[in-house]
Structure formats: C-alpha cells, structure tokens
Fold this protein.
Amino acid sequence: MILCFTDISTYHRICPQCNMVYRYREWKEGLHNFDNHIFLTLELCVFLRENVTNHVSVSRVVDSLEGLRGEKYPSRNIIFHAYCHFEALTDTEYTYSCVNCGFYPPVVLMDLHRKGFFKLAVSDLKAPLDDYSGEHDIDSFWNSVHLAMISQGFFQSSANNPFTVSPSYEHWAPWIGSETQGSGTVLNTEFKKVPTCSSSTEAQLSSVTEDHLIDELAKQKVGVVRKLCKACNIDTKGSRLDLITRLKENMKIRQTYDKVFQSIWGASGGWSVILCPHGIAYNIKFNLRAESPRDFADLLIS
C-alpha cells in the first residue's frame, strides 16, 4: 500500500560511550528512513524505480499518487532526494545496454541536452596544476557521489554537508557503464577550455551570430525568455514569439546582446550524451563549461 501518514513519533538509540545516534531503520518492516522525518515504503521506492526506468519522472508519479489517493504528499524535491538516498544504499548489478548493440555499439550518436544545466560562475573553478592530465578515477568519483546522496539524510543543507561533491576540474568524471568503460580511468579535459588571453571573451561574443543566438533563445522556456526581457527593460507581455521578436529588435544594442549571450551561455554546458542508434544512452557528461568537441572526444576515448 502506498499511503501518506503524518504526526508519527520515531525513536533512536545513543551510544553511551561515543554518543553516536542510531536511527530507526528496519528493512524487514518495509520502510526506508531518509532523514528521521521522511519515511518511504520499499514498495514506493521500487515503484519509483520502475517509473524512472520507463521515463516517468518522480514528480509526475507523486502527482498521480496525490490524485489517486486524494492526499497531500511532501514536496517533490524531498521525495526525489529520499528516493536517491534509497538507490545509493542499494547494491544494484549493472546490466543495462541495448539488446541490438551490446556494450560497444559500432555506431553512436552524439548530442547535447541544454534543459538540464546548473548555473556556475567560472571564476569559482580553480585551475588545476600545470602537470594535470585530465585523468579521473571513475569509480572513486561516483562512490563519492553515492556518499553525498547517503549523507543528505543527516544534514539540514548541502552547505553543512562535508561530503557534498562540488564541481571542479580535478574531480568531475563522466558516467560510463561499467561494461562500456575502456578502463577505470576516464578523461575530462575541460580545464583546457580555459581561455589563455584576456580578450577571449570579446572574441567569443563576436563569433556568435545574432541568428544563432536567436535559435538558441527559441529553445528556452517562456519563463526564461520573459525573465530575460525584464532584465533588459523590454515589455514582458505576449507570447514567447512576441518576446523573442522584441529581444531580436533590441539586440542591436550591445548591452542587450551581451545580456542575452550571458543568459544562454553563461551557465554550464548542459549534458553531453552518447547514444546508440536505438536511443540507449551509454555515456553522460555534465559539462562544467560551454560545450565543445573536446567533450565528445573525451567520452569516445574513455
């Protein structure tokens, strides 16, 4: 049964010698304790897993359950993190691959997904040492990600969590299936994207045509476009096409052009993905900087 209960007391034990807290965690009773406040049934965890593998997001599953049960569930974000907490503690055997292509597809498709990106100030990334080659231990990196997911249940925020994985050139590996990896060492040479001269920003801005910028702007959600219009002191009323038309008319002004450019390319470069012709993803790389052929070359070599 997938139900929602509130106002439930939980008990824990404290070691009299080291004061370590032992939380309630009884798997045999079918419950998963996330943070001593949010409990998921194992049935719900497995149900979420089946939906995710069938391309249904956790938030949509929660919406469906609320409509079915007529009850209010906790926030989608908390349930998502609780589910990730469950998966990080689960020992799952990796056997995922295309039934036609196997673990090494002879033909691959390479693409970039911009919908999943995070804002990141480039100045926050410290340059690696001069002798750094861009090689990463993929198992060590993803084990640290698992540890960060597990530790979420013990800290109020990521700022207080010492196990949080922060983006860096020296510790940021792509995801590649265990059977598809060439070895345990993979490449991420994004530190070589760092410009070598102070005038590179102007060169980068001038190399992007206005039409290219408009094409990328058309891919953004209407809320992003409306927010950008507000930042440029442009009328925010009307459809997305109306907003883009107004931006295009005002992009002749250098200040407006720069704001549009920074809005589109001022964040991380999204996800670089390699798929087989049947749509099965084999590699995923979360880009720290704007996309370049280097990202896909790193994935192919790895």
About this structure: The two ends are 44 Å apart (CA to CA). The chain has ten helices and ten strands. The first strand starts at residue 13 and ends at 14.
